[in-house]
Write a structure and sequence with these properties.
about 425 residues, mainly beta, eight-stranded antiparallel sheet, about 40% strand
Length: about 425
């Protein structure tokens, strides 16, 4: 009898241990099958609240993720399409970090959970067709209940939809931690790699140095206006602001066009980024002849060294390449870097541009190397506080907002 009692006690303890271990293991819900879907060629989904929990989608068709919508009955849809799906989330998941991951959405998308917008992927015409993306959604879910997942996909032409797997909700941080991390183990120091300082602006004084930078593009831009009022030099810093004046949104942009251009080198700025989600900070380069032809080697490439779309997440920096401005414009699509704490304090953002590659850095760590669309002509530098193309995207902005730059430096090979 005593042996039986001991055996029962051991088995009971083992069952508790096994249960605890099981609950601690990462869990994943596959979202690839059986989405309710409707095309939205007239873009009425937002006004009719197709993302709402109360919206009736019973007459929508059923599609799967992981396939183009063209292969599922919507051959000519080059516009908007909506996916809706209800998912039960276990009460055991409460208190865990939870992500919704999408292997590829062609081209951009907005994610809603239980009727609330969680994030938008596709600012500045950056396609996520070939790039995985994720949103941290633990604060948006209801635990022990059914949750409505809605995804509005925007197709800019050719293939469309949630066309690449996985599409999942997961507690497994390995599914996201390996994405967008540095590919170097130590910071890049230009002087230790054969570079020397060639040009810089430390923003001394109380105004722009007219030999180095000037306000550019004064006038209408996106939903607002570029204005010298939104550009200040103060205490050794350049301040590019976005604010409302007389019902207009003013923003600040400066550049070296007409003052300084070069090709190849290591280009770096040190900056504190904006606080809002609708407007965004950018550090980039451009060629004067980028709209005159389609060969980036001859006509140049827009090199987006850094763009901070806070809608993507507080810790996500975007890099991109665009060329052949005009009807045949091309882009590489966004290269994303996850940098914890980048939303606080000052950080450095850099590109090493050589005849063979572009390498993108944050705080000295290399995140991406790209060998496409190499420009072989001189380009100029731009620092800008950018605005979206419709006022709706500014609804979460806290204006006035400011993008503060400590310095800009250019290094060239010795």
């Amino acid at each position: 009898m005593k042996l039986s009692l001991k055996l029962c006690l051991i088995l009971f303890i083992l069952s508790l241990t096994t249960s605890c271990v099981k609950n601690d293991l990462p869990e994943t819900i596959d979202l690839s099958k059986n989405w309710r879907f409707a095309p939205d060629e007239n873009n009425i989904g937002m006004s009719e609240k197709w993302y709402s929990v109360d919206f009736d989608d019973s007459q929508w068709v059923v599609l799967d993720a992981g396939k183009r919508w063209e292969d599922q009955g919507f051959r000519d849809l080059d516009s908007y399409g909506w996916y809706r799906k209800s998912v039960d989330i276990s009460a055991d998941w409460k208190g865990k970090d939870i992500w919704l991951k999408i292997g590829g959405a062609n081209d951009a998308y907005e994610l809603f959970i239980n009727g609330e917008s969680v994030g938008y992927f596709g600012e500045a015409n950056i396609s996520f067709a070939s790039k995985p993306s994720f949103s941290e959604v633990s604060k948006n879910l209801k635990y022990g209940l059914s949750n409505l997942i809605t995804i509005k996909v925007i197709d800019w032409g050719n293939s469309g939809g949630l066309w690449r797997l996985p599409v999942m909700i997961t507690t497994d941080e390995n599914e996201v931690n390996g994405l967008f991390k540095p590919i170097s183990d130590s910071p890049f120091i230009p002087e230790d790699n054969g570079y020397e300082l060639y040009w810089e602006d430390q923003f001394d004084g109380d105004k722009l140095d007219p030999q180095k930078l000037a306000v550019r593009g004064v006038g209408p831009r996106a939903v607002g206006y570029v204005s010298p009022k939104a550009v200040k030099v103060n205490g050794g810093f350049l301040e590019l602001s976005a604010f409302v004046e007389n019902d207009s949104v003013l923003t600040g942009i400066v550049g070296t066009d007409g003052l300084f251009m070069t090709k190849y080198g290591y280009f770096e700025c040190c900056a504190q980024l904006q606080k809002s989600k609708g407007n965004w900070a950018a550090f980039w380069m451009q060629s004067p002849g980028i709209s005159k032809g389609e060969d980036p080697a001859k006509f140049g490439t827009e090199i987006d060294i850094m763009e901070y779309f806070k809608k993507l997440g507080n810790n996500m920096i975007s890099h991109n390449l665009h060329w052949a401005y005009g009807p045949n414009q091309q882009s590489t699509g966004s290269y994303t870097s996850v940098v914890d704490g980048v939303d606080k304090g000052f950080h450095t953002f850099s590109v090493e541009w050589t005849p063979e590659k572009y390498a993108f850095f944050v705080d000295g760590y290399k995140y991406h190397e790209v060998t496409r669309a190499i420009s072989h002509i001189e380009e100029y530098i731009i620092l800008s506080m950018e605005l979206p193309h419709n006022m709706e995207e500014l609804k979460d902005s806290l204006l006035p907002d400011v993008y503060i730059v400590d310095y800009v430096k250019v290094y060239k090979k010795k």
